[in-house]
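> call design_seq(struct)
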């Protein structure tokens, strides 16, 4: 499964899954189409256009940040914000470790990224559940943005599983342990860069 990417193969697959999941999650997060209340298309942050053309005087209207918004909607907003933030961190860090392939075997880092992905998926799904329960109580109808949030959280969970496999995979024998500190030296006269690795003597 390693293929031509070596140590970075599984994290690369995970990063692709996380990127796709994040796109779905963010689109659902921002769109005013989680449900419709019979008059408006409703999202986490604003009312959308009229559901029917027969509704007159209906237009896009931002919801107040605090006043007039039920507590459960604030809870959903907080959960979905947390999900977006948590999935963003691995998307920034993983490419760095894919560039330095040996870093793929730092299990502490992989475990931290896995945990963030897991918590992102969990908070995203909990937010959807809270919204769905209250949507049902209010007699609203489900729309596409809520489904996108569900799909995004599911794909992020798949990314978590791939990272988990990467974390528990056996370290290849070609990857030497223990790790020794390295430093970089730049020769200003020759315009060259050298990497110096310190090793213990027997």
């Amino acid at each position: 499964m390693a293929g031509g990417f070596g140590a970075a193969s599984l994290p690369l697959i995970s990063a692709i899954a996380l990127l796709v999941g994040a796109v779905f999650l963010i689109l659902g997060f921002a769109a005013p189409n989680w449900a419709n209340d019979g008059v408006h298309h409703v999202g986490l942050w604003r009312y959308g256009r009229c559901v029917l053309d027969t509704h007159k005087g209906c237009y896009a209207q931002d919801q107040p940040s605090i006043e007039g918004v039920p507590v459960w909607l604030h809870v959903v907003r907080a959960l979905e914000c947390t999900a977006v933030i948590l999935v963003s961190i691995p998307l920034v860090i993983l490419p760095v470790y894919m560039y330095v392939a040996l870093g793929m075997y730092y299990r502490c880092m992989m475990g931290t990224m896995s945990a963030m992905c897991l918590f992102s998926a969990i908070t995203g799904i909990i937010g959807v559940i809270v919204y769905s329960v209250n949507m049902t109580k209010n007699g609203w109808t489900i729309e596409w943005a809520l489904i996108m949030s569900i799909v995004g959280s599911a794909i992020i969970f798949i990314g978590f599983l791939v990272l988990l496999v990467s974390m528990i995979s056996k370290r290849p024998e070609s990857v030497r342990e223990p790790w020794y500190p390295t430093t970089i030296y730049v020769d200003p006269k020759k315009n060259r860069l050298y990497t110096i690795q310190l090793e213990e003597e027997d």
